[in-house]
């Protein structure tokens, strides 16, 4: 039996089913009747069976396998009617945190040809396997990634999800995208190959030196930093995000000068010492030194200077007020998915769809107890309800004659307040700052910052359009003169449609985003 292992930071769970579905339908000689999953809990089955297609693909949470001798987990699968699972910790790898083995004993198959297909997950990794034989199976976790993972598994166990077995071919496709997340030259090349193939990116090498000799006097408040990471966990995550949204950058930050002329960087999505992803304001020197020396994602960074007329509009006091008010708040997990999904059919690269989004949410909600409300809270706001869980939300949406698909397309409102405060992704944070600082005047009230993807931000006609006004050190050693200043990176960055769209009311609230062309209708 094949066991594929993926090491992922928590956020990547978000895209797991994206990857799962990349490979299309499964073609193996099993009888269709063997492919129907049975849900382990009669109660949830009752709720879910009324939903038919809306939940067909939902992974079913079985429970968590722990090492406690009293409480080995027992359930009925789709194929094997008696399954038991438990964890045994070990230290075969002599690593700081040791490893563990998950034991699964499967018996009472209902047919000769059936299989059970499972996803196993901790907040730090996702693995899958399938079982065809009635016997004891093991799944080895050679070593835990961090102390936090060891502690998590000790306390909460490894979560087990039963999948519809027809998903097996698509799960196998995971193996192909695994290298996207590898922190190596091989992983980096896999990202480049993926983006070339699926987005038509070019990745031409630039002449050395790859780091600009920056004079901070030439950087001003409101200048935008477009960042593209191509290696390691964040590289893999950004690759999928770029592909799904059509953005040629995967992360953003913004420059601000204080009254003494000192330069700062505001960033939503900075990993702090505790492993949390938060909003920060850092001195430029500190931020830049980190990007150059410590960021192992091989960041490519471009400075997009504001147009002088736009800069003149920027109320720096108001920008600072906003940035200070957000400092230390968690990254905008609640709404990041909604900036991308605006339409029922025009946003998901096939065969991705709202079912997959629901699957992601199902897996996520079991793994991040502190973020259980991650999307539920956002979905409840869309319904005007409170505290409904995912199945209840789906039921409620259908009861009102709507659907889960439709619910996902309801635009986020910037003034929605979540339990942990306002929620902003890396780019919503900057667009909101622009909004507060007056850049969208006089249509400020009809702009929802949380509806902007990274591409939506860099195509705004806000930036310098006269190359003779770009700083001297900008693209100094490159004979190809970009319309913005790439300040680090081996490959030339490209931002198609950069600086082309004047803001208009309700912009980006109804935009499709389908690869490979990502055609954007006027006025969407
Ligand atoms: C296991 O169960 C026994 C009897 O029910 C109980 O006394 C004991 O505390 C339990 N041990 C653990 C580790 O839960
Ligand atoms: C299910 O399997 C477990 C472990 O193999 C066994 O102890 C138990 O008796 C089995 N239950 C049934 C109903 O067969
Ligand atoms: C595993 O073994 C190594 C080397 O013997 C040791 O340093 C480490 O602390 C052990 N880890 C655990 C979790 O026991
Ligand atoms: C700039 O913003 C501050 C704080 O919001 C406000 O008090 C001030 O009136 C604004 N200045 C202008 C010129 O709009
Ligand atoms: C969840 O939050 C609580 C309280 O803030 C904290 O003690 C705990 O470590 C957190 N758990 C995880 C898995 O982050
Ligand atoms: C570009 O900027 C230069 C220097 O400020 C100026 O002389 C020139 O007229 C500008 N060109 C355009 C097309 O605005």
From TrEMBL:
Q: Where is the signal peptide?
A: 1-22
Please give the name of this protein.
Uncharacterized protein LOC120250481
What keywords are annotated for this sequence in UniProt? Signal
User: Which species is the source of this protein?
Assistant: Dioscorea cayennensis subsp. rotundata
